[in-house]
Amino acid sequence: MSNEDVVLKVENVHKSYGNNKVLTGVSFEVRRAEIKIICGPSGSGKSTLLRCLNLLTQPDKGHVWLEGEEVTDPTTDISKVRQKIGFVFQEFNLFNHLNALRNVSIGLEVVKGMKKDEARKIALRELGKVGLEEHAHKYPAELSGGQKQRVAIARALAMNPVIMFYDEPTSALDPQLIGEVLDVMKKLAKEKLTSLVVTHEMGFAQSVGDEMMFMIDGKILERGTPLQVIQNPKHKITKLFFEHIAKLYMRQVR
Amino acid sequence: MSFWEAFLPKIFEGWVLTVEILVPSIPLGVILAIVLALARIYGNKPISLLAAGIVSLIRGLPLIVTLFIIFFALPKLAIYFSPYWSAVLGFILCTGAYQSEYVRGAIQSIDVGQSLAAQALGMSKLKEVVHIILPQALRRSLPGIANEIIYLILYSSLASYVGNQEIFAWARHFNSLYFRPIEIFLTAGLIYISMATVATTGFKIIENKLRIPGLEVAR
Fold first, then answer.
1. Is B213's CB within 8 Å of A142's CB?
2. Per residue in A227-254, pLDDT tens?
3. What is the ipTM of this complex?
4. Does domain B3-209 have CATH number 1.10.3720.10?
5. Among A93, A176, A178, B209, which residue's Cβ finds the most Cβ atoms within 10 Å?
6. Contact B117 A139 (CB under 8 A)
7. Which residue from A130, A119, A197, A211 is spatially nearest to A163, judged by alpha carbons?
């Protein structure tokens, strides 16, 4: 790879399930410290795209590089690659049998082979970053949705990733809980943590997003600054989408 | 020598042998159950089919038939097991096959999201299964496993039919000598009830210990 500032490079990624073409040639790059937003209607392939990038789903065609290392090369140790990508899921996916602290430390202990004490010290620090130090000993079932998602973010951060993937991190949350998660994400964005964010939170996109990509039918239809894409889209379908979102969220896109 | 003076030491001797049969059968049965369940879910086609075949075979045979095959039929193929090991082997296979279905169901009930999260952290399949899936699946299968272990304690009486002088063998022996079925079989029954009660209590304690806060069932 020529440019060391490119953290993630995606080239012509395809994925089908039977006759259902989910991704039909997606290419883009994410540079260091960049916050890249992906949006688009449900079924447009956003989640599949994220999962194809760390091979949670195996793409049919195309290439992905992380910091110059080809992720899609079959000889690459995918576990090593995944450790460098902090993945935050829509449904949190916390480990239900572990308390918040252990949810955050288990990757360090089991994957990175860190000593328990050291891993838990780091875990406590990461929980502090998302404002949950005092909830460290609570189990997922004892936490609110917003707290769960913040634990999930801390779990990803603890691995010291080079890039964060967020897959609609606030879509499963009650409206009054969305703010606390977005605040954490904004804070991380301001600390220049490279991120790829699938979200429909237009306020978030406009305040911290560097570029927005609008996806439909497994393709990136258009891209630009969030302001351009949301307020001045080139395509009618993009415009309709954002009008619809704005109505749903009962907010004006200024 | 009175009946009780003759009977009680022998029934105690039988109880010791019953316990000696159960002590390896219970943990090895649980281990077999876990192995069979993992093989069926995570194994490749041949391994998965093999595990499914073993489970179907063992569950298709009455335990007494399994025991007779091990003790009487296998020697014809020059495979010999003592009465003790015939019983232990039969019990491990039987309880393992039944328990494996509880474990398999419990593994499948863990939502796939946790599996994805484990993989996304960089865990190998083995690490994921050991650290994320099994700790939760075993908790969920505990009531079923307890059920099967209590069955095992009770059907350990079948060991008497392959030459083990355990509780039930002594009970039958004394009944044929003294014909006092009420005293004899009530005593034997009482011993089995006591063992089942101890197991039930033990499992209750384990279940409470392993309870995950916040996951209580709403009453």
1. yes
2. 999 999 999 999 999 998 888 776 544 4
3. 0.93
4. yes
5. A93
6. no
7. A197
